[in-house]
Design goal:
The structure is a homodimer of 429-residue chains.
Chain A lengths: L1 E3 L4 H8 L7 H17 L1 H12 L10 H10 L2 H19 L6 E6 L2 E9 L2 E5 L8 H14 L3 E5 L10 H9 L4 E3 L3 H10 L9 E3 L4 H10 L4 E2 L7 E6 L5 H12 L6 E6 L2 H15 L5 H11 E5 L3 H11 L3 E5 L15 E4 L5 H6 L25 E9 L1 H17 L3 H11 L6
Parallel strand pairs in A: 1-11, 4-5, 4-7, 5-6, 7-8, 9-10, 9-12, 10-11, 12-13
Antiparallel strand pairs in A: 2-3, 3-14
Helix pairs in contact in A: 2-3, 2-8, 2-9, 3-8, 4-7, 5-6, 6-7, 8-9, 10-11, 10-12, 15-16
GO molecular function, one term (chains A, B): NAD binding
Pathway (chains A, B): Amino-acid biosynthesis; L-histidine biosynthesis; L-histidine from 5-phospho-alpha-D-ribose 1-diphosphate: step 9/9
Function (chains A, B): Catalyzes the sequential NAD-dependent oxidations of L-histidinol to L-histidinaldehyde and then to L-histidine.
């Protein structure tokens, strides 16, 4: 863990900008996969699964009995934890449900916004070592809360040709019945264009490798997508009142995700900085995933010592981290200073892993500085809005000349005509 | 105008799917422009403006005096209309402003969502014949309402090297001070990567030609974008109580936008269908933009006769039109039947052009069926969310074992450690 005494944000930005700019070769593969699946449907899916995953699938459908049986394969204690997590996630996301509204601007004018759920949504759940039941819960539950009627899950098969049973169990707990054992760009293609078996969806959500990410970008426009997520990040702002053990443990909890994960501490205390640095070394050696965490800490780990806690917030806003832990006295009073962050954890007993699994807010969060312009995945991502306009004859009459003038000013005579025809002699039957 | 007695939605979808699937050549140009501007900054902007627009610009900056003076160049009556439109647009978009919220789940748990505005936004306003002051108002006002601090406008220069004065006047009315006379993919590149003069933005909104649209897609991820808009569409659902003159005028008001615009009537009355067909011919000949409207009507104009008004709504939901006029008895009672539409116009005195300019709701709307998963541009597009999580020591203690189990189940030991370190002997100072 490097300790840096400069607060020049450009240095940090460079370190955090871990996204390559060029994806030429990947994009070429993605494009071919998308086109092949579009043209050849299921057969292309089966071919690619053989080619990329090395698995010869008899069928891409996961049978209903297999989904239902998956819960039985898990430790009942773990099922109880999943149930509690599910309940907490539901609770939180209910608060994000949007409502239609109407206002009466006068006796003859009603304006409003009608909210409707998306109809059909596809959720990508990674396979292999990264097969997390929490991914399924965090992506499916907001869609359920929004009122999406059809939720379809795709997840690449393991070596046994089957989708991870913990993922199936989570699917079963939230009532998902349509699951396909496919992954990679070919799964995104199937959700985008449809095949003989899989009907296309309106939106695709869920994390995946770089092929999945680029396929989602390719599909964007034809369908909606959630976001293009990069490696995980944590930024901790801590003052001298904080425990270096906690800080080090929380930094490592993100570092273990991925060799490209970023773990950053910003503090106004050089004592805290030095102690965290030592504590990181101590804790690192005991971790199962020490090799990954070590690589991440060495490459993208940083401790910044700044002059004041206000300077720390300014730097954090520049970074726009996925996870921001605010470990300072009176953490709540700092909220107005936070402009850009995916999720904010307040105080010393709100560690980031609490949010990953359990507390309720979504763990799909904007990374790589995109918290400057994007939000956590939420119920709102599965709802859409329609403007509603009503004018009475009388109210339209009052403003028709202004609208006609405006239309003529913009050179659109048929627009003007749409107004004038309504008030022409004999026009109004 | 063709009258079709089938309601097979696939036919309609094919007609409405006016987006090409392949943009290879355009994307190659866009990519080069993006990279050149990224590398060479202002010089690339000036070169491309010469190459594409045929204009040798002394400077890309539009001076403050020029912006302020623009209002004086307009007819005061038109300025008054712009002011009224501005006021209506502000009013409507205020209702879309989102609020932070917090809930106390127990004495020691607070969960919430903090809402913050985006910091810096770029608005693309097309030039030439399509230079509309309404575009400026509709894109800038929601950002202002959201609380965006920096709004920058780009618009391609006309033959005289200047940005359209009506656009500048509209900018002046809403207080925009940072304007650059650049257009095309190069303008999108400048907003995305920044140049010596132009600082990069967080989000780019506004319509443009196909180069602008593809450049926005290219930039997506690095910055946020609004949507990739296609040609305009109107769908009118009308029963036999409606006036064919109004229906024809409204269909033509969209058809005049663009040769690729779609104008569709769905009715359960063959009388209305026949009369609208005749009326279209009658009105077409009197339009200034008759050639464009004629082409659109011939290619993408359609009248569908269906068995019932319910069938009409089913078909319209499949189409997911940008604009939906509901011209039937008791139009309000039909709202629950509408699942997919950008903007809904209720009753016979709420024609689409009312929404284009004046009523207040945004005219930037999802096209080409994307209303199935997207919303009108709104205040919410310029705000973002951060989850907020607080647990007290006591509350975290209650759930720590569950979180540790969950983390271990997912194979993430450092996540588990972040919990256990907080409750280990001597760990909690």
């Amino acid at each position: 863990m490097k300790v840096d005494t400069t607060d020049i944000s450009s240095i940090m930005n460079e370190k955090l900008l871990r996204l390559e700019d060029s994806y030429d070769q990947i994009d070429q593969v993605v494009r071919e996969v998308m086109e092949q699946v579009k043209t050849f449907g299921n057969q292309a899916l089966i071919n690619y699964t053989e080619q990329f995953d090395g698995i010869s699938l008899p069928s891409i459908n996961v049978r209903a009995e297999e989904i239902e049986a998956a819960v039985q394969l898990l430790d009942p204690a773990f099922v109880a934890i999943l149930e509690q997590a599910k309940s907490n996630i539901f609770d939180y996301h209910l608060h994000q449900k949007e409502k239609s509204w109407y206002v009466n601007k006068s006796d003859g004018i009603i304006l409003g916004q009608q909210i409707t759920p998306l109809h059909r949504v596809g959720v990508y759940v990674p396979g292999g070592k990264a097969a997390y039941p929490s991914t399924l819960l965090m992506n499916v539950i907001p869609a359920l809360v929004a009122g999406v009627s059809e939720i379809v899950v795709v997840s690449p098969p393991g070596k046994d040709g089957k989708v991870n049973p913990a993922v199936l169990a989570a699917a079963s707990l939230v009532g998902v019945k349509e699951i396909y054992a496919i992954g990679g760009a070919q799964a995104i293609a199937a959700l985008t264009y449809g095949t003989e078996t899989i009907r296309p969806v309106d939106k695709i959500v869920g994390p995946g490798n770089i092929y999945v990410a680029r396929a989602k970008k390719y599909a964007f426009g034809k369908v909606a997508i959630d976001m293009i997520a990069g490696p995980s990040e944590i930024c901790i702002i801590a003052d001298e009142s904080q425990n270096p053990l906690f800080i080090a443990a929380d930094l490592l909890s993100q570092a273990e995700h991925d060799e490209m994960a970023a773990a950053v501490l910003i503090t106004d205390s050089s004592t805290v900085a030095e102690q965290v640095k030592l504590e990181i070394e101590k804790q690192l050696s005991n971790l199962e995933r020490a090799a990954i965490a070590r690589k991440a800490i060495d490459t993208y780990g940083n401790i910044f010592i700044v002059e004041s806690i206000d300077a720390a917030f300014a730097l954090a806003n520049e970074m726009a981290p996925e996870h921001l832990e605010v470990m300072v006295e009176d953490a709540f009073l700092q909220l107005p200073k936070i402009k850009n962050a995916g999720a904010i954890f307040l105080g010393k007993f709100s560690p980031e892993p609490l949010g990953d699994y359990f507390a309720g807010p979504n763990h799909t969060l904007p990374t790589s500085g995109t918290a400057k312009f994007s939000s956590p995945l939420g119920t709102y991502d599965f709802m859409k809005k329609s403007s509603v306009i009503y004018y009475s004859e009388n109210e339209l009459k009052k403003v028709k000349d202004q609208i006609i003038d405006f239309a003529n000013q913009e050179g659109l005579g048929a627009h003007a005509n749409s107004l004038s025809v309504r008030f022409a002699e004999g026009g109004n039957k």
